[in-house]
Amino acid sequence: MAQVPNIRLNNGVEIPQFGFGVFQVKPEDTERTVRAALDAGYRHIDTAQMYGNEEQVGQAIAASGIGRDELFVTTKLDNDKHGADKAIPALDESLRKLGLDHVDLFLIHWPRPAENKYVETWGAFEKLASDGKTRAIGVSNFQLAHLERLTAETGTVPAVNQIELHPYLPQAELRAYHQEHGIATEAWSPIGGQGGDLLHEKSLAGLAEKYGRSPAQIVLRWHIQLGDIVFPKSTTPSRIAENIDVFDFELAGDDMAIIGELDNGTRVGPNPDDFG
Fold it and tell me: Mind telling me the catalytic residues?
């Protein structure tokens, strides 16, 4: 079973660097899929209110028999729950669905700058953390301007920013800001989206042959060496097990650079300045 390293967040909480994401996993497939991930050694599960499968994630956790202190569970605030009056009961509802008394990480899923409530919402997150309903708080899809405003107006630096990040969109400027300010970088869509062009790149095929790995494993190892926290999604047990099997080899510096040259600014998801 893979030995996944932990990353220490800015409040001292330890988060496994490799996890399992359930974005776009249908509710009827979620319990089975999460159980497969837990059986393969995953101990970090990333869900969201928007995904509609928190209840099934909770069922998989309960059925697994794995101790709560061995698991790291993240969920995210739905876009229609911004504001202090909505965010607190929204997490209570997530906890009910998950069957847990706390989550390990709670994220504002999207900044929704047009609504302009993310700073107010962050105040509710601080209360949720102080009440012990989440061990750490962070954000997702925040751009530099959103992060700077949040810190300037609240004085609290998010523990995490979960962003779209893959070789086509390596987010160098945001990652540098995160590193400077003690924010952990989480990568969603780490292999560029299901069925996308990234894994068919000739340079990745060459590296896969060189290291005796799949192109997806090459990209996931690139993330690990960058220091990103990743949680690829799959519903196939063999692929779930393959994805996490990236801790027994290391990419050479020249090969890391080859992957970095794939940057073309292509997004899989929406621009956070416009979405929500």
Answer: 51
Is domain 6-193+227-248 in CATH 1.10.357.20, yes or no?
A: no
- The one-digit pLDDT tens for each residue of the chain (276 residues) are 668 999 999 999 999 999 999 998 999 999 999 999 999 999 999 999 999 999 999 999 999 999 999 999 999 999 999 999 999 999 999 999 999 999 999 999 999 999 999 999 999 999 999 999 999 999 999 999 999 999 999 999 999 999 999 999 999 999 999 999 999 999 999 998 765 689 999 999 999 999 999 999 999 999 999 999 999 988 999 999 999 999 999 999 999 999 999 999 999 989 999 886
Distance CA 245, CA 96 (A): 33
- What gap in Å lies between CA 178 and CA 185, rounded to an integer? 7
CA distance linking residue 127 with residue 10, whole number of Å: 17
pTM score: 0.96
